[in-house]
Amino acid sequence: MRTNSRLFALLFIGCSIVLKGQSQELNNNSNKKTEWIIADLLRQKSNTIEISGNPKIVSSPFGDAVSFNGTDDAIFLNELPLQSLQEFTVEMLFKPELNGQFEQRILHIGESKGDRMLLEIRALENNWYFDGYAASGTNKKTLIDEKLIHPLEKWYHVAFIVTSKNRATFVDGKQELREDFPFSPIQTGQTSIGVRMSKINWFKGAIYKIRITQKEVNPKDFIQS
Q1: Do 47 and 21 lie in a common domain?
Q2: Cα(206)–Cα(32) distance, rounded to whole angstroms?
Q3: N or C, where is the chain less crowded by C-beta within 10 Å?
Q4: How far apart are CA 203 and CA 224, in angstroms?
Q5: CA-derived radius of gyration, the chain
Q6: Could you tell me if 3 and 86 lie in one domain?
């Protein structure tokens, strides 16, 4: 009896260890992140990265950033970090600048005209307002409010959260908009930084970092700007 009790105890401990390991692996997967320091992308020599124009490395409060001229500067990546994700949070540290186009696409992930996600701004004379865009099947909508303006020529943190049920935008940790939106995962496409995939609506300004997390991130855990 004593031997059987010891054997049962060992089996129980072994199962507990296996289950604990599986739980940790799931937690790690749910917290998986893609993080791009844009200056590092520019420095890389890779077949998966295409550079358009002549984006330049510039200094920022956080480290080396990349300046885009609003005319022909962009970075194209043969990557799809949103593939199959039911929910995600996209964050960016960037500085929109004066004299850019009114409509500017800063980050585009997915298809050029099909399922996709974009971080965009609308630039006025001295201000800008944020636009989080998602297209999922026949559901296509811009999350935007022209009254929520911010001065150009300053560094900002923005975030766009998409779940299977809704979307929300944040600027400097403060929620601006949230609405219901049925979303199905993006399965195909690539990534462009500094312009829409189709090479229209160029961004004028600088970008330091983009981070994509495979879950809805609490604002207290956003990148600290």
Answers
A1: no
A2: 26
A3: N
A4: 23
A5: 21
A6: no
How many structural domains is the chain composed of?
2
What does the pLDDT look like over 107-152, one tens digit per residue? 999 999 999 999 999 999 999 999 999 999 988 989 999 999 999 9
How far, rounded to the nearest angstrom, does the alpha carbon of residue 176 sit from its chain's CA centroid?
Answer: 17
Query: Residue 174's domain spans which residues?
Result: 33-221
Q: What is the structure's pLDDT at 86?
A: 94
Residues 85, 190, single domain; the answer is: yes
Q: Do 4 and 105 sit in the same domain of this protein?
A: no
pLDDT of residue 56: 98
Are the CB atoms for 107 and 76 separated by under 8 Å?
Answer: no
State which residues of the chain have pLDDT below 70: 1-31, 225
Instruction: Kindly state whether residues 210 and 100 are assigned to the same domain.
Output: yes
User: Do 121 and 131 touch, CB atoms closer than 8 A?
Assistant: yes
Question: Is there a contact between 165 and 180 (Cβ–Cβ < 8 Å)?
Answer: yes
